[in-house]
Design a protein that fits this description.
Elements lengths: L8 E5 L3 E5 L4 E6 L7 H17 L1 E8 L3 E8 L1
Antiparallel strand pairs: 1-2, 3-5, 4-5
Length: 76
């Protein structure tokens, strides 16, 4: 895996263009298109986010709402 310098802008394509800048904080929001999250779904989302925080990103803030999630994070 290639190592990137902290200020190197990386552009990748997937379903949407993705731009990454090392050392940057990101505000991420995702939502349920179909319905509200149940209590067990919200707990699962929280668990997955906290598990990922240990491996893939530093989590600064996160909130799981009834139909959407907000995160402030820095990729590792």
């Amino acid at each position: 895996m290639k190592e990137y310098s902290p200020n190197e802008l990386i552009k990748r394509r997937g379903h949407l263009p993705h731009w990454e800048l090392g050392g940057s904080l990101y505000f991420v929001t995702f939502t349920s298109v179909l319905k509200e999250f149940s209590c067990s779904e919200r707990e699962l989302i929280r668990t997955v986010i906290l598990t990922g925080a240990a491996k893939y990103f530093q989590l600064y803030f996160g909130v799981v709402m009834y139909n959407h999630v907000h995160l402030v994070l820095m990729p590792l």
